[in-house]
Each structure stands twice: as structure tokens, then as C-alpha cells.
Amino acid sequence: MAHGGFLAPRTLNENHHRAALNIFMLIVLAHWAEHIVQAVQIWGLGWTPPQSRGVLGMPFPWLVSSEWLHYGYALVMVAGLWMLRDGFTAASRRWWLLAFGIQAWHHVEHLLLLLQAQTGRPLFGQAVPTSILQMVVPRVELHLFYNTVVFVPMVIAVYLHLRPSEAEARRMHCNCRPSPASVRPEPQPTPVA
Whose CA is closest to 160, among 92, 88, 87? Predict the structure, then answer.
């Protein structure tokens, strides 16, 4: 059911879950690829962090320095993880919610960076906008870490969601429901001798 131009959460997590999940994961992978390219530029090619702008940042250098862009992506991630959560069940849902929790913190860090950039008042006595954990870990490494620790539980969640156990498959209400061939059989109890 459409509601004001957007899909209602129930419809999104039932009839359109697979398509929404595919689009969301494509966005996540594209962003992840940008971080990987930036890491290769720094540690593989020996470029300095300001020179290492990923793929899109090379023709559009302002993208890398735009706190609005980074915050916008963090917001899309936290919103997508929240909106798609009801399509997941059991173990896949726990992994998905773990990714959401980590991304929620990552979002807070980007909000702090955005507010500092907009007000021109860096926190913690720094010369440039700085997030809390950036006080300990440099920005490039920190955000590569954040994207990794959000991405890994997402991948586990999607794998478990698309290959559920028999009991999990019975509880699924979304259109990701697998064919019987991709359902994991329930573990059989070991007979006691």
C-alpha cells in the first residue's frame, strides 16, 4: 500500500523487501568501494590522505570534504537499516540490529562533524571538525573501521535471511522467502547412547 508517495513499512517489509534490500545493499557496496579505493590510494599507492579521494572524489574533489555528503550517507544508512529491519527474523534480525546499533553511533559521529563544520567551531581544541573516536584513530582509518563493522553484520544478516532454517522460513513474511532447496535443515538432536 502506498502512503504519501512512500511505501508503508509493512508493504516494504513484505511485498517489496527483496527489491528494497537489493537497492540498499547496492548503495552500501558502492560506498564501501569508495572506502576501499581510498585505502588502496593511501596504503597501496602511497598517496597522502588529501590526495586520496576515492573514485568519485577524483573528478569531484569537493565530495570528499563535504560533511553534508558524509552525514547524508550516514543518515541513509541508519534509516535504511531501521526501515528494513522488520523483514528479518530470528538470527538474521539480531545481526541486522547489531549493524543498526553500530551505524546509529557512526551517525552520531557524523552529526558531530557536520555541526562543527556548519558552526565553524571544532570541538576538543582541534583545528578541524573532529569526531569523538577520531581523537584516538585517524579519520580515514576510523571510517574504514566503521564501515567494516557495520558491513560485516549486514552481510551475515542477509546471508542468514536468504538461507533461513526451516523454522525461520516459516516465520518469514517478506518476499525473500526462499525456495525449499535453500532452506537450511533443522539440526537433529544427537541420540543418547
Answer: 92
Across the range 6-27, mean pLDDT stands at 85
Using alpha carbons, select from 33, 20, 151 the residue that is nearest to residue 80.
20
Residue 63, H or E segment = helix 62-65
| Alpha-carbon span 75 to 65, nearest angstrom | 17
What is the C-alpha to C-alpha distance for residues 162 and 183, in angstroms, rounded to an integer? 8
Q: What is the dihedral of CA 6, 88, 147, 25, to 10 degrees?
A: -60
Query: Over the stretch 23-80, which tens digit does the pLDDT of each residue have?
Result: 999 999 999 888 899 999 999 999 998 888 888 888 888 888 889 989 999 999 999 9
- Residue 30 sits at the vertex; the CA angle it makes with 105 and 8, to the nearest 5 degrees, is 65
Any idea where the domains of the chain sit in the sequence?
8-176
pTM of this prediction? 0.84
From residue 46, how far is each of 13, 27, 49, 50 by CA, in Å? 44, 28, 9, 12
Query: Comparing 42 with 184, which gets the higher pLDDT?
Result: 42
Identify the burial level of 52 via C-beta atoms within 10 angstroms of its C-beta, where 0-12 means exposed, 13-18 middle and 19 or more buried.
Answer: buried
